[in-house]
Amino acid sequence: MIVKEVHAKTILSKSKVQDYTINPYIGCQHACTYCHARFIKRFTGHKEEWGEFVDVKVNAPSLLALEIRKKKRGRVWVSGLCDPYQPLEKKYEVTRKCLEILSRHNWPVTVQTKSPLVLRDTDLLKNSDNIEVTITITTADEKIRQIFEPNASSITQRLDALEKLHSAGIKNSLMIAPILPLAEDLVKKASGKVDRVILDRMNYHYADWVYRKHGLEYARDEKFFEQKKTELVDALKKEGIPYRPLF
Known about the structure:
globular, 10 helices, alpha/beta, three-stranded mixed beta sheet, 2 domains, about 30% helix
């Protein structure tokens, strides 16, 4: 793993998902096989494989402190091109420092992660009604999780994090995306632990080789996604969990 400390030119960027996005890091230690953020290498010049490099934007908090005073208030997505709570965050605390600034200015925030490290910042998260934490889980089967997300936290750890956030009164959501085999079994496991569930399919092809290698090509088919959407929605309705399909 090659880790570099870098100085960004800007940190609060316009986003198509929310009003703004903040990416405290370039690259991600989780190295999920399907990650759409791999495209960033075309612009950053990194030659290393995805998951083998991370640039830490050490000046992100100081930049944010300046930019937040100049820009119109809006919802911030933390983050779109990396996991803001990947292991390096434990050392650098760039995400935490940015959240402190956003919270101080009462900006609405959506945090998206696969890591229980987000629980470290419970003190910040529970002090605002404008913060939602989204934890991504793609399947209820640990063997499938290890195929696609070998360096991310376990399914049990993520479900436990959702439950602890919920118990702390922090608005949370489970994002099942991309939908992988046995995703429908997540619904019962998440019942009573989440405020809502977001569903999305696979919309990119970085992991096509993984599907082929493990005989899972069927799970890339349009029929698979429509079937899983139906199964998930039926299960969510049965459990009384609010949901939002993105496809």
